[in-house]
Amino acid sequence: MTVIEEMQKFAADMTEFRHDLHAHPELGYHEERTADRVARRLAGYGVDVHRGLATTGVVGTLRRGNSTRSLGLRAELDALPMAELNRFSHRSRHEGRMHACGHDGHTTMLLGAARYLADQGDFDGVVNFIFQPAEEGGAGANAMIKEGLFEQFPCDRVFGMHNAPGLATGKFSIRSGPMMAGCAFFDVTVGGVGGHGAMPETAVDPIVAASHIVSALQTIVSRNLRPFEPAVVTVTQIHAGDAYNVIPAQAVLRGTVRCFAPQIMSAIGKRIEQLAANVASGLGATAKTDYRVVYPPLVNHTDETRYIADVAAELVGEENVLRDGRQTMASEDFSFMLNARPGAFINIGNGDGDGGCAVHNPNYDFNDAILPLGAALWVRLVEKRLAHGDEAGVASDHVAMARDGGAP
Ligand SMILES: [Zn+2]
Ligand SMILES: [Zn+2]
After folding, report:
1. What is the CATH number of domain 3-179+297-404?
2. Which of 91, 94, 349, 391 is the most buried (most CB within 10 A)?
3. Is 235's pLDDT higher than 80?
């Protein structure tokens, strides 16, 4: 019986578990109930459980044999601060919170793999099941690393998986190198002089200055970057004023920057600051910019990308693995883990039908049909990477290096 067929036996249980998480979404660093449920399940499977890393993080450790080779597999616990519009029975019970990114599904797939591996996994080494808090803007992955994740739980390699709406079920997508953009946030505070709305000559209008700044920011991507450097500068918030007839003293702009290269990220930050200050000054106002890089770009390592793609191809056939998958300007804090350890991040198709609605959409739902496949990918990755003897993980590194012409 194949691993996917074995996993199908867990399908009903996984679906029930996933629905329960979906109905009880929790925000970053407050995933107490979710972490409790995950920890209880892991302990029930006989996996060693460690809690409290980055507040609500959970790490399950499973050892077999004598090998010290180790793998980290990561899933996310958190939901988003948004209202769900779905009406199905497992919709969110918490007003203003929703599992709209499928982290409920990712957590369930990793637990399914832990259950199988604890029960009948055939491997020699150490698997760390990493359940992180606060992926959605809270940099939970980085918080776990800073609190000693990889010192307490050594991982030779790390892997992550995310569902991809629009990609057919039964398909995987991945690419070597930069796959997801880095992310920065900015605040521009525009200072003017308040006054009567009917007497603009007595005031310095920060709303007019802010409007010109928004327009000027559009020139960064179109005029300052090489056309071959993908980047996004988006103003997402404008706040100013309270009355119809008062010119306020201040306006605040906020927004996000996405791009793939750290030097471009800092160059854009400098440009925002210069444009804001000088456009404001031309209009008699002032502008102060606060610019902070939140997530680095997600860069897949070449050998590990090929490795997990090969495992995926064994499960679903080479024709269903896009090895040159699309880049996205969305961001992901698994990038911190890939900056700390070699590894790769793979997308699993969530379906391309009518229900294939995008993540972060109020009508989104994780596709339960792919739970066994995602869990099976984790299982096969572990069993191949940590195969008995020397032939798998270590030997295949050497094969890959020889193929790439790299030195050991
Ligand atoms: Zn998300
Ligand atoms: Zn996500």
Report:
1. 3.40.630.10
2. 349
3. yes
